[in-house]
Amino acid sequence: xxxxxxxxxxxxxxxxxxxxxxxxxxxxxxxxxxxxxxxxxxxxxxxxxxxxxxxxxxxxxxxxxxxxxxxxxxxxxxxxxxxxxxxxxxxxxxxxxxxxxxxxxxxxxxxxxxxxxxxxxxxxxxxxxxxxxxxxxxxxxxxxxxxxxxxxxxxxxxxxxxxxxxxxxxxxxxxxxxxxxxxxxxxxxxxxxxxxxxxxxxxxxxxxxxxxxxxxxxxxxxxxxxxxxxxxxxxxxxxxxxxxxxxxxxxxxxxxxxxxxxxxxxxxxxxxxxxxxxxxxxxxxxxxxxxxxxxxxxxxxxxx
Amino acid sequence: xxxxxxxxxxxxxxxxxxxxxxxxxxxxxxxxxxxxxxxxxxxxxxxxxxxxxxxxxxxxxxxxxxxxxxxxxxxxxxxxxxxxxxxxxxxxxxxxxxxxxxxxxxxxxxxxxxxxxxxxxxxxxxxxxxxxxxxxxxxxxxxxxxxxxxxxxxxxxxxxxxxxxxxxxxxxxxxxxxxxxxxxxxxxxxxxxxxxxxxxxxxxxxxxxxxxxxxxxxxxxxxxxxxxxxxxxxxxxxxxxxxxxxxxxxxxxxxxxxxxxxxxxxxxxxxxxxxxxxxxxxxxxx
Lengths: 304, 286
What we know:
The complex is a heterodimer of chains A (304) and B (286). Chain A is mainly α. Chain A folds into two domains: 40 residues, no CATH class; 234 residues, MetI-like fold (Orthogonal Bundle), CATH 1.10.3720. Chain A has twelve helices and two strands, in the order αββααααααααααα. In chain A, α3 crosses α7 and α9 packs antiparallel against α12. In chain A, 40% of the residues are buried. Chain B starts with a helix and ends with a helix. Chain B has two domains: 61 residues, no CATH class; 170 residues, MetI-like (MetI-like fold, Orthogonal Bundle). Chain B is mostly helical. Chain B is globular, with a radius of gyration of 24 Å. The chains are: A mainly alpha (304), B mainly alpha (286). At the A-B interface, α1, α3, α4, α5 and α6 of A face α2, α5, α6, α7 and α11 of B. Chain A: Keywords: Cell membrane, Membrane, Transmembrane, Transmembrane helix, Transport.
């Protein structure tokens, strides 16, 4: 028999062995592609007609073109507008529903049913959901038909031909798909608040509005920041819904074209230099946002 | 909420409950209305659909279904492909994420701290930003039009790993592992026969999430699968959208959409309680 310490060492090598699959797969399918993406962003590499240009090393030329051409600013603006249009109603609704679900005095019946229903859209295939909305809101589709039957409009409204309504539809779909998730996250956070605080407030005669603003919201701050930043990271990745809804065109007038749709376009046209540059910029933004999440949840841990 | 402020004592509990129910019913309507219309329209013929919306179902569901199956889109093949990719992804992802979590949870080794920090740090990186390198790699490895690049990468899933690690901290005491060692159980044997069964609830939740996200995934599969025989359902949906849909039989379109979201809805209806709990569990950090 060996000594205890060497035995521990002998066991602990299994830590490395069990990590092999993860590390191997991560390096091959994530890390190498990431470095390859960054590497490609410094090269001129695209198809002009049928002739292949490059790959030639061009330094930061791709980034320069990207920012001076200006298209990326439009798409970044679109992405942000779509995210805000989706996130503001979503967070208000989620806070409200979360507060109701976690309020023991309110004793809502059927809250399991409601939670089940609001989470459902999150699991629906985004591309199928967008295709559904595309058909429902098309000129001859059921929504126009219903609106005309009720008498709100006299002729079909072209939902997808107007910037406002096209963006509104995308925001509505994303809001529907994500507010259930946000509600459950916030609710879990609210359930974690010490109930004695609520009881004390009740004894002091605080109204439910006061309780919400003075106790729930401040104590919920870390999880709220987490929700905002992760939603923003998710918002940057917005792709499936506008891609399918507009068939990749970002119509009307590129007003629903998002950053990832832009990336996807470059990937399809095999303009690898530009695709690389767009990817790297998205990577840097996400990295900064993740750092913020890291800090917030890290602080949270120290307090607890 | 503004109304609440105007009344100094706040609204009574009954009024608040009333408002809550009204809002919840409206929200429920907003969530389910689209699927109701989808169901109704899937049962109606193209001619009926052109004539406008009626709230009652018709009798053409089977006819639409037959037209779809015998049409140009390989829907059954798509369904089978989607199933293969999603089931294998869910199995590999949960098994190996549990293994990774176990490595970090149960052992003490030099690089542990750094590897753990690294996995947490890369958790938020979206797959889209590495897509270019990924597609090029898949091309170099000659893996285009195969399912390998869609299935194997799920072995390294930082989010699933994190969930498993959290769950292990609350359910897997180190003393249990030591007891197994004393009984002469090898490390790999311990993992497969003692740890995995204990992790079943967490594995079930994560298997569902991985299955669903893989089932719904569009961006990466669309870049890798070009052969009609290999396409998954989301790609077929996109193809349907790109087709000259005005000439399309709309009944078929609705059936196709219903067909592609149906499996997930069934899974959800059976397992909804675990799923909703799983989301809540994953959020409680630290």
